[in-house]
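ok so for the tutorial part 2 we go from a plain amino acid sequence to predicted C-alpha coordinates. step 1 is just haveing the sequence, like this:
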Amino acid sequence: MTFNNFSKLKLAYLFLVLSSFSLVSLADSSMQDSADPSSYYLTEASTSFSSGDWDIDDNGQADALTDGLMFLRYAFGLSGDSLLNGVISSDSVISSAAEIEAELARVFASSGDIDGDGTVDALSDGLLLLRYLFGLTGNTLTTGVIGDGATVTESAALESYMSALMPQAPYIKLNGSAFVSHEQATTYNDAGATATDVIDGSIEVIKTGAVDASVAGTYILRYLATDSEGNVSRTLMRSVTVADTTAPAITLLGEAVVEVELDASYEDAGATATDTVDGVVEVVTTGSVDTSAAATYTLTYTATDNSGNRAITTREVSVKEPRAEIFNVTATNNGGWAYIINGVSKPDLTLEVGTTYTFNYPGSHPLRFSTVNDGIFNGGVEYTQDVDTSGTNQITIRVTSSTAKTLYYYCRIHARQGGKITVTQ
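step 2 — the prediction. this is what the C-alpha coordinates look like for a chain of 425 residues:
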Protein backbone atom coordinates (compact mmCIF):
# COMPACT_ATOMS: atom_id res chain seq x y z
CA MET A 1 0.00 0.00 0.00
CA THR A 2 1.46 3.40 -0.93
CA PHE A 3 1.84 6.15 1.64
CA ASN A 4 -0.78 8.26 -0.17
CA ASN A 5 -3.34 5.45 -0.05
CA PHE A 6 -2.54 4.86 3.61
CA SER A 7 -3.00 8.57 4.32
CA LYS A 8 -6.28 8.59 2.46
CA LEU A 9 -7.53 5.69 4.54
CA LYS A 10 -6.53 7.45 7.73
CA LEU A 11 -8.20 10.63 6.53
CA ALA A 12 -11.43 8.81 5.74
CA TYR A 13 -11.28 7.12 9.14
CA LEU A 14 -10.73 10.46 10.82
CA PHE A 15 -13.69 12.09 9.16
CA LEU A 16 -15.87 9.22 10.29
CA VAL A 17 -14.59 9.74 13.82
CA LEU A 18 -15.15 13.49 13.57
CA SER A 19 -18.69 12.98 12.25
CA SER A 20 -19.53 10.65 15.11
CA PHE A 21 -18.18 13.03 17.71
CA SER A 22 -19.92 15.95 16.06
CA LEU A 23 -23.27 14.22 16.33
CA VAL A 24 -22.66 13.50 19.99
CA SER A 25 -21.43 17.01 20.57
CA LEU A 26 -24.31 18.60 18.71
CA ALA A 27 -26.81 16.60 20.72
CA ASP A 28 -25.07 17.70 23.90
CA SER A 29 -24.95 21.27 22.63
CA SER A 30 -28.67 21.35 21.85
CA MET A 31 -29.40 20.29 25.40
CA GLN A 32 -27.11 22.97 26.74
CA ASP A 33 -28.62 25.65 24.52
CA SER A 34 -32.16 24.79 25.58
CA ALA A 35 -31.26 24.59 29.25
CA ASP A 36 -32.08 27.27 31.74
CA PRO A 37 -29.13 29.71 31.87
CA SER A 38 -29.21 29.16 35.64
CA SER A 39 -27.43 25.85 35.02
CA TYR A 40 -24.29 27.67 33.88
CA TYR A 41 -21.39 28.18 36.27
CA LEU A 42 -20.27 31.36 37.94
CA THR A 43 -16.52 31.67 38.32
CA GLU A 44 -14.23 34.31 39.70
CA ALA A 45 -12.57 36.43 37.01
CA SER A 46 -9.43 34.62 35.84
CA THR A 47 -6.70 34.85 33.21
CA SER A 48 -5.49 31.30 33.85
CA PHE A 49 -6.22 30.19 30.29
CA SER A 50 -2.65 30.98 29.30
CA SER A 51 -1.37 27.83 31.07
CA GLY A 52 -0.58 25.86 27.89
CA ASP A 53 -1.94 22.56 29.23
CA TRP A 54 -4.62 20.39 27.62
CA ASP A 55 -7.45 22.28 29.39
CA ILE A 56 -8.28 24.44 26.38
CA ASP A 57 -11.56 25.90 27.70
CA ASP A 58 -10.09 26.52 31.18
CA ASN A 59 -12.85 24.72 33.08
CA GLY A 60 -10.32 22.85 35.22
CA GLN A 61 -10.22 19.53 33.40
CA ALA A 62 -9.01 18.14 30.08
CA ASP A 63 -11.90 16.36 28.41
CA ALA A 64 -11.91 14.36 25.17
CA LEU A 65 -15.25 15.65 23.83
CA THR A 66 -14.38 19.29 24.46
CA ASP A 67 -10.65 20.02 24.70
CA GLY A 68 -9.61 16.97 22.66
CA LEU A 69 -11.99 17.71 19.78
CA MET A 70 -11.05 21.39 19.74
CA PHE A 71 -7.34 20.43 19.49
CA LEU A 72 -8.11 18.01 16.65
CA ARG A 73 -10.33 20.43 14.75
CA TYR A 74 -7.81 23.25 15.08
CA ALA A 75 -5.11 20.94 13.74
CA PHE A 76 -7.34 20.37 10.72
CA GLY A 77 -7.49 24.13 10.21
CA LEU A 78 -11.03 24.72 11.49
CA SER A 79 -11.87 28.05 13.10
CA GLY A 80 -14.84 30.12 14.29
CA ASP A 81 -18.13 28.27 14.61
CA SER A 82 -16.73 25.19 12.85
CA LEU A 83 -14.15 24.91 15.61
CA LEU A 84 -16.56 25.35 18.52
CA ASN A 85 -19.82 23.85 17.32
CA GLY A 86 -21.06 21.40 19.96
CA VAL A 87 -17.90 21.28 22.06
CA ILE A 88 -18.31 24.20 24.46
CA SER A 89 -19.62 22.83 27.77
CA SER A 90 -21.82 24.61 30.29
CA ASP A 91 -18.85 25.19 32.61
CA SER A 92 -16.36 26.41 29.99
CA VAL A 93 -14.62 29.54 31.29
CA ILE A 94 -13.43 30.72 27.88
CA SER A 95 -15.94 30.11 25.13
CA SER A 96 -15.50 32.64 22.33
CA ALA A 97 -13.82 31.55 19.11
CA ALA A 98 -11.13 34.26 19.42
CA GLU A 99 -10.14 33.19 22.95
CA ILE A 100 -10.18 29.47 22.11
CA GLU A 101 -8.08 29.99 18.98
CA ALA A 102 -5.58 32.09 20.94
CA GLU A 103 -5.28 29.39 23.62
CA LEU A 104 -4.91 26.66 21.00
CA ALA A 105 -2.16 28.67 19.29
CA ARG A 106 -0.29 28.84 22.60
CA VAL A 107 -0.76 25.12 23.21
CA PHE A 108 0.36 24.23 19.68
CA ALA A 109 3.48 26.41 20.02
CA SER A 110 4.49 25.13 23.45
CA SER A 111 3.43 21.49 23.53
CA GLY A 112 1.31 20.52 20.51
CA ASP A 113 4.05 18.48 18.79
CA ILE A 114 3.39 15.34 20.83
CA ASP A 115 5.32 12.84 18.71
CA GLY A 116 8.34 15.15 18.21
CA ASP A 117 8.30 15.22 14.43
CA GLY A 118 8.61 19.03 14.33
CA THR A 119 4.97 19.77 13.35
CA VAL A 120 1.51 19.58 14.93
CA ASP A 121 -0.47 17.20 12.77
CA ALA A 122 -4.14 16.30 13.10
CA LEU A 123 -3.69 12.65 12.11
CA SER A 124 -0.89 12.05 14.57
CA ASP A 125 -0.74 14.57 17.43
CA GLY A 126 -4.46 15.29 17.25
CA LEU A 127 -5.48 11.65 17.40
CA LEU A 128 -2.88 10.85 20.05
CA LEU A 129 -4.29 13.49 22.38
CA LEU A 130 -7.90 12.56 21.66
CA ARG A 131 -7.19 8.87 22.34
CA TYR A 132 -5.24 9.68 25.50
CA LEU A 133 -8.07 11.83 26.86
CA PHE A 134 -10.43 8.94 26.16
CA GLY A 135 -8.24 6.79 28.40
CA LEU A 136 -6.47 4.72 25.74
CA THR A 137 -2.98 3.42 26.52
CA GLY A 138 -0.36 1.10 25.04
CA ASN A 139 -0.83 -0.08 21.46
CA THR A 140 -4.43 1.20 21.32
CA LEU A 141 -3.01 4.68 21.85
CA THR A 142 -0.34 4.53 19.12
CA THR A 143 -1.61 2.16 16.42
CA GLY A 144 -1.90 3.89 13.03
CA VAL A 145 -1.02 7.39 14.20
CA ILE A 146 2.77 7.41 14.53
CA GLY A 147 4.28 9.09 11.44
CA ASP A 148 7.62 8.33 9.79
CA GLY A 149 9.34 11.41 11.21
CA ALA A 150 8.23 10.91 14.80
CA THR A 151 10.98 10.90 17.41
CA VAL A 152 8.73 9.87 20.30
CA THR A 153 7.09 6.59 19.35
CA GLU A 154 6.81 4.48 22.47
CA SER A 155 3.48 4.53 24.26
CA ALA A 156 5.04 5.01 27.70
CA ALA A 157 6.97 8.11 26.58
CA LEU A 158 3.92 9.56 24.84
CA GLU A 159 1.74 8.93 27.88
CA SER A 160 4.32 10.52 30.17
CA TYR A 161 4.52 13.60 27.96
CA MET A 162 0.74 14.07 27.76
CA SER A 163 0.25 13.29 31.45
CA ALA A 164 2.62 16.11 32.41
CA LEU A 165 0.35 18.57 30.58
CA MET A 166 -2.85 17.47 32.27
CA PRO A 167 -4.32 20.20 34.53
CA GLN A 168 -2.63 19.88 37.92
CA ALA A 169 -5.17 21.81 39.99
CA PRO A 170 -8.29 19.97 41.21
CA TYR A 171 -11.35 20.03 38.97
CA ILE A 172 -14.30 21.51 40.82
CA LYS A 173 -17.92 21.36 39.81
CA LEU A 174 -21.08 22.76 41.36
CA ASN A 175 -23.82 20.41 42.45
CA GLY A 176 -27.02 21.95 41.16
CA SER A 177 -27.56 25.39 39.73
CA ALA A 178 -25.28 28.40 39.96
CA PHE A 179 -28.34 30.63 40.35
CA VAL A 180 -30.82 29.64 43.05
CA SER A 181 -34.10 31.27 44.05
CA HIS A 182 -35.01 30.42 47.64
CA GLU A 183 -38.20 31.08 49.56
CA GLN A 184 -37.71 33.40 52.51
CA ALA A 185 -38.30 32.00 56.01
CA THR A 186 -37.67 28.41 54.90
CA THR A 187 -34.54 26.37 55.57
CA TYR A 188 -31.83 26.66 52.92
CA ASN A 189 -29.83 23.50 52.26
CA ASP A 190 -26.92 24.16 49.94
CA ALA A 191 -26.17 21.56 47.26
CA GLY A 192 -22.44 22.21 47.57
CA ALA A 193 -19.76 21.25 45.06
CA THR A 194 -17.47 18.31 44.34
CA ALA A 195 -13.81 18.26 43.43
CA THR A 196 -11.49 15.63 41.96
CA ASP A 197 -7.73 15.66 41.49
CA VAL A 198 -5.58 13.69 39.05
CA ILE A 199 -3.40 12.51 41.96
CA ASP A 200 -5.58 12.64 45.08
CA GLY A 201 -8.91 11.60 43.59
CA SER A 202 -11.93 13.05 45.42
CA ILE A 203 -10.96 15.95 47.68
CA GLU A 204 -12.67 18.28 50.11
CA VAL A 205 -14.35 21.45 48.87
CA ILE A 206 -14.18 24.56 51.05
CA LYS A 207 -17.24 26.79 50.98
CA THR A 208 -17.23 30.43 52.11
CA GLY A 209 -20.22 32.66 52.59
CA ALA A 210 -23.61 31.97 54.12
CA VAL A 211 -27.30 32.39 53.34
CA ASP A 212 -29.63 34.01 55.87
CA ALA A 213 -32.98 32.64 54.73
CA SER A 214 -34.84 34.91 57.16
CA VAL A 215 -33.70 38.07 55.36
CA ALA A 216 -34.49 38.83 51.73
CA GLY A 217 -31.45 39.52 49.54
CA THR A 218 -28.85 38.00 47.24
CA TYR A 219 -26.07 35.93 48.78
CA ILE A 220 -22.86 34.73 47.11
CA LEU A 221 -21.32 31.39 48.09
CA ARG A 222 -17.78 30.51 46.93
CA TYR A 223 -16.25 27.07 46.54
CA LEU A 224 -12.63 26.00 46.00
CA ALA A 225 -10.45 22.97 46.60
CA THR A 226 -6.75 22.46 47.28
CA ASP A 227 -4.92 19.19 46.62
CA SER A 228 -2.13 17.64 48.69
CA GLU A 229 0.53 19.43 46.62
CA GLY A 230 -1.03 22.84 47.21
CA ASN A 231 -2.60 23.21 43.77
CA VAL A 232 -5.73 25.34 44.08
CA SER A 233 -8.79 24.90 41.89
CA ARG A 234 -10.63 27.72 40.23
CA THR A 235 -13.20 29.39 42.49
CA LEU A 236 -16.83 28.69 41.67
CA MET A 237 -19.68 30.83 42.91
CA ARG A 238 -23.36 30.30 43.55
CA SER A 239 -25.81 33.19 43.69
CA VAL A 240 -28.73 32.56 46.07
CA THR A 241 -31.61 35.02 45.94
CA VAL A 242 -33.83 34.89 49.01
CA ALA A 243 -37.27 36.37 48.49
CA ASP A 244 -40.78 36.13 49.87
CA THR A 245 -42.89 34.88 46.98
CA THR A 246 -45.54 32.96 48.93
CA ALA A 247 -48.93 34.53 49.49
CA PRO A 248 -50.51 34.54 52.97
CA ALA A 249 -52.80 31.65 53.94
CA ILE A 250 -56.41 32.73 54.45
CA THR A 251 -58.68 30.77 56.79
CA LEU A 252 -62.43 31.30 56.55
CA LEU A 253 -64.26 31.47 59.83
CA GLY A 254 -67.41 29.45 59.31
CA GLU A 255 -68.58 27.67 56.20
CA ALA A 256 -67.63 28.61 52.63
CA VAL A 257 -71.25 28.15 51.51
CA VAL A 258 -74.00 29.64 53.67
CA GLU A 259 -77.79 29.74 53.28
CA VAL A 260 -79.84 32.52 54.88
CA GLU A 261 -83.62 32.89 54.93
CA LEU A 262 -85.22 35.85 53.27
CA ASP A 263 -85.48 38.88 55.60
CA ALA A 264 -83.35 37.18 58.24
CA SER A 265 -80.35 38.98 59.70
CA TYR A 266 -76.86 37.99 58.47
CA GLU A 267 -73.60 38.70 60.24
CA ASP A 268 -70.50 37.50 58.43
CA ALA A 269 -68.02 35.40 60.40
CA GLY A 270 -65.04 36.89 58.53
CA ALA A 271 -61.61 35.35 57.94
CA THR A 272 -58.05 35.40 59.28
CA ALA A 273 -54.70 35.30 57.46
CA THR A 274 -51.13 34.40 58.38
CA ASP A 275 -47.89 34.78 56.40
CA THR A 276 -44.64 32.84 56.81
CA VAL A 277 -42.65 36.08 56.95
CA ASP A 278 -45.05 38.74 58.26
CA GLY A 279 -47.10 36.64 60.66
CA VAL A 280 -50.71 37.82 61.07
CA VAL A 281 -51.90 39.77 58.02
CA GLU A 282 -54.99 41.95 57.73
CA VAL A 283 -57.91 40.54 55.74
CA VAL A 284 -59.99 42.95 53.66
CA THR A 285 -63.57 41.89 52.96
CA THR A 286 -65.44 43.15 49.91
CA GLY A 287 -69.02 42.49 48.88
CA SER A 288 -72.28 42.52 50.85
CA VAL A 289 -75.39 40.45 51.50
CA ASP A 290 -78.91 41.87 51.08
CA THR A 291 -81.24 39.55 52.95
CA SER A 292 -84.29 41.41 51.65
CA ALA A 293 -83.67 40.06 48.13
CA ALA A 294 -83.41 36.37 47.33
CA ALA A 295 -80.13 35.82 45.45
CA THR A 296 -76.64 34.36 45.76
CA TYR A 297 -74.01 36.81 47.03
CA THR A 298 -70.22 36.46 46.97
CA LEU A 299 -68.01 37.87 49.69
CA THR A 300 -64.33 38.20 48.79
CA TYR A 301 -61.53 38.11 51.34
CA THR A 302 -58.09 39.47 50.36
CA ALA A 303 -54.84 39.36 52.31
CA THR A 304 -51.60 41.00 51.07
CA ASP A 305 -48.20 40.63 52.74
CA ASN A 306 -45.44 43.24 52.87
CA SER A 307 -43.83 41.79 49.74
CA GLY A 308 -47.00 42.28 47.72
CA ASN A 309 -48.01 38.62 47.60
CA ARG A 310 -51.79 38.44 47.60
CA ALA A 311 -54.20 35.67 48.54
CA ILE A 312 -57.93 35.66 47.77
CA THR A 313 -60.76 33.42 48.91
CA THR A 314 -64.53 33.73 48.80
CA ARG A 315 -67.70 32.80 50.61
CA GLU A 316 -71.02 32.18 48.87
CA VAL A 317 -74.10 33.36 50.72
CA SER A 318 -77.49 32.35 49.32
CA VAL A 319 -80.57 34.22 50.49
CA LYS A 320 -83.44 31.78 50.07
CA GLU A 321 -87.17 32.25 50.07
CA PRO A 322 -88.56 29.95 52.78
CA ARG A 323 -89.65 26.51 51.65
CA ALA A 324 -93.14 25.48 52.69
CA GLU A 325 -94.86 22.14 53.09
CA ILE A 326 -98.40 21.29 54.16
CA PHE A 327 -99.62 18.23 56.06
CA ASN A 328 -103.34 17.54 55.97
CA VAL A 329 -104.06 15.70 59.19
CA THR A 330 -107.13 13.59 60.02
CA ALA A 331 -107.98 11.53 63.09
CA THR A 332 -109.47 8.09 63.57
CA ASN A 333 -110.61 6.09 66.58
CA ASN A 334 -109.75 2.43 66.49
CA GLY A 335 -109.76 1.58 70.18
CA GLY A 336 -108.08 5.00 70.77
CA TRP A 337 -107.65 8.19 68.82
CA ALA A 338 -104.78 8.50 66.32
CA TYR A 339 -103.67 11.15 63.87
CA ILE A 340 -103.57 10.01 60.22
CA ILE A 341 -100.93 11.75 58.06
CA ASN A 342 -100.43 10.76 54.42
CA GLY A 343 -102.51 7.66 55.06
CA VAL A 344 -100.29 6.48 57.93
CA SER A 345 -101.35 6.27 61.58
CA LYS A 346 -99.16 8.30 63.96
CA PRO A 347 -96.14 8.27 61.60
CA ASP A 348 -92.69 9.49 62.62
CA LEU A 349 -91.96 12.70 60.70
CA THR A 350 -88.72 14.33 59.49
CA LEU A 351 -88.65 18.12 59.22
CA GLU A 352 -85.83 20.01 57.48
CA VAL A 353 -84.18 23.23 58.61
CA GLY A 354 -85.19 26.13 56.37
CA THR A 355 -88.71 24.88 55.73
CA THR A 356 -92.01 26.08 57.17
CA TYR A 357 -94.56 23.34 57.84
CA THR A 358 -98.31 23.80 58.14
CA PHE A 359 -100.46 21.14 59.78
CA ASN A 360 -104.19 21.35 59.00
CA TYR A 361 -106.03 19.32 61.67
CA PRO A 362 -109.65 18.48 62.58
CA GLY A 363 -111.16 21.11 64.89
CA SER A 364 -111.89 18.58 67.63
CA HIS A 365 -108.25 17.37 67.64
CA PRO A 366 -106.01 20.47 68.11
CA LEU A 367 -102.41 19.48 67.21
CA ARG A 368 -99.48 20.83 69.25
CA PHE A 369 -95.73 20.21 69.68
CA SER A 370 -93.62 19.29 72.68
CA THR A 371 -90.11 18.09 73.47
CA VAL A 372 -91.68 15.31 75.55
CA ASN A 373 -93.49 12.30 74.11
CA ASP A 374 -97.29 12.88 74.35
CA GLY A 375 -96.71 16.43 75.59
CA ILE A 376 -98.86 17.58 78.45
CA PHE A 377 -100.15 14.08 79.03
CA ASN A 378 -96.62 12.97 79.95
CA GLY A 379 -95.43 15.89 82.04
CA GLY A 380 -94.29 17.98 79.09
CA VAL A 381 -95.10 21.50 78.01
CA GLU A 382 -96.17 22.93 74.69
CA TYR A 383 -93.25 23.85 72.36
CA THR A 384 -93.82 27.36 70.98
CA GLN A 385 -90.52 28.50 69.36
CA ASP A 386 -91.32 29.74 65.82
CA VAL A 387 -94.77 28.16 66.14
CA ASP A 388 -97.93 30.00 64.97
CA THR A 389 -101.37 28.79 66.13
CA SER A 390 -103.35 31.84 65.02
CA GLY A 391 -104.93 30.08 62.05
CA THR A 392 -108.20 28.22 62.35
CA ASN A 393 -107.64 24.51 62.78
CA GLN A 394 -104.06 25.06 61.70
CA ILE A 395 -100.60 25.13 63.30
CA THR A 396 -97.40 26.32 61.57
CA ILE A 397 -93.79 25.76 62.62
CA ARG A 398 -90.77 27.41 60.99
CA VAL A 399 -87.85 25.04 61.33
CA THR A 400 -84.47 26.75 61.85
CA SER A 401 -81.05 25.66 63.02
CA SER A 402 -82.12 26.49 66.59
CA THR A 403 -85.23 24.33 66.49
CA ALA A 404 -85.11 21.40 68.93
CA LYS A 405 -83.67 18.38 67.15
CA THR A 406 -86.37 16.05 68.54
CA LEU A 407 -90.02 17.02 68.91
CA TYR A 408 -93.32 15.22 69.37
CA TYR A 409 -96.72 16.13 67.97
CA TYR A 410 -99.73 15.43 70.18
CA CYS A 411 -103.42 16.30 70.62
CA ARG A 412 -104.34 18.77 73.37
CA ILE A 413 -107.53 16.80 74.10
CA HIS A 414 -106.73 13.13 73.58
CA ALA A 415 -103.68 11.28 74.90
CA ARG A 416 -101.43 8.99 72.88
CA GLN A 417 -102.67 10.37 69.56
CA GLY A 418 -99.39 11.69 68.00
CA GLY A 419 -95.87 10.64 67.06
CA LYS A 420 -92.21 11.69 66.87
CA ILE A 421 -90.56 14.47 64.82
CA THR A 422 -86.83 14.52 63.89
CA VAL A 423 -85.30 17.80 62.73
CA THR A 424 -82.48 17.58 60.16
CA GLN A 425 -80.34 20.06 58.21
